[in-house]
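Section 3.1: Structural characterization of target chains.
Under the original work plan, the team committed to producing a structural model for every single-chain target entering the pipeline before any wet-lab resources were allocated. The record below documents one such target. The sequence was received from the expression subgroup and is listed exactly as submitted; it comprises 349 residues.
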Amino acid sequence: MSTATPTAASAVLPPTGSARVDRARLDALAARVTTVGAREMMDVEKPFTGEALGRVARCEEEDVERAVLEARAAQPGWASTSLDRRAAVLRRFHDLVLARQNEVLDLIQLETGKARRHASEEVLDVAIVSRYYANTASQHLRPRRRRGALPFLTATWEYRHPLGVVAIIAPWNYPLTLAISDAIPALIAGNGVVIKPDGHTPYSALWGMELLEDAGMPRGLIGVVTGSGAKLGPHLIDRVDYVMFTGSTHTGRTVARQAADRLIACSMELGGKNAMIVLDDADIGKAVTGAERALFSNAGQLCTAIERLYVHEAIAEEYVRRLVEHTRKMRLGAELEYGPDMGSLKFSP
């Protein structure tokens, strides 16, 4: 474990704290990116300092095709695996995530710049989601009887079958949750998955893929391609059977059009503008702490963050004063430990 201040030889470390991931570990994760040969490498920077964190491949269309073909080849065997065995893999994954959480907490902080308390939300989310689907998949996937075309004379049954290969195009602000938590229901249902993480935050998705394979998922069932979303996204959508996209509304329209052209389903979480309203009968103390969480969680980089505050004029002066006092007490920092209330604001996607 390194504890030195960042130098050319230990450039993965933030200004303070000690990391459980070094350059060799990052290179091992980068080697898991699906490519058909040598590729130009792209730099991944630390938002804490702007220094180099590591390098991953800048994938091309051929790499996307290989990732999808490998997932498609592995998918039938996985789909034919009993649901109990698939659920057992997710339970092992749940245990591995919790057992190795310190490593991935460091990794999330290093590539996003977020505070550890906010990175921990991602770890808990992935663990909870994997346990949830391991325990409830049989309910979600069981056959269901539906009303027939001719009541009392005909019966209709609904069966759930895997789609094939699911694409997940994930953003940088929640690199573990929005890559791996979104993949889990697709995997438990018997699908293959190809993940295109944001180019600023590829390592969390690669770490999650590695742990899923350590838990027992077949090699090739999950693929990760790295590079420009604008360049790789269309190639990915052209080859898969379902698309999960999280990102801007502008890009979401493009994704929806391409999915519609291919007559495949898509699920999207897009941007928004959220307001908080504080009325004159509100508990000011609770409204202040609530606003702090709504404004500054994950450094304000989340789709449900509050961007506007509307406060009743009768309490506006007191409310603003108390909110400013509360905000000034917040601690910003880059430590790989619990303590700072907010991490870096340097990130500019």
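The longest strand covers residues 52-57.
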